[in-house]
Amino acid sequence: MHDKLPTERLDSEDAVARHLTALIARDPRLAVVYERAGPFPPRTAPRGFAGLAKVVCGQQLSVASANAIWARFEALPGALDPQGYLGLDEETVRGVGFSLGKFRTVRAIAEAVVAGDLDFARVEALPAEEAVAYLTAHRGIGPWTAEIYLMFCAGHPDVFPAGDLALQKAVAHGLGLDAQPSIKQLIELAREWSPHRATAALLFWRYYAAMRGREGIVL
Question: Where is the HhH-GPD domain (predicted)?
Answer without folding.
Answer: 57-208
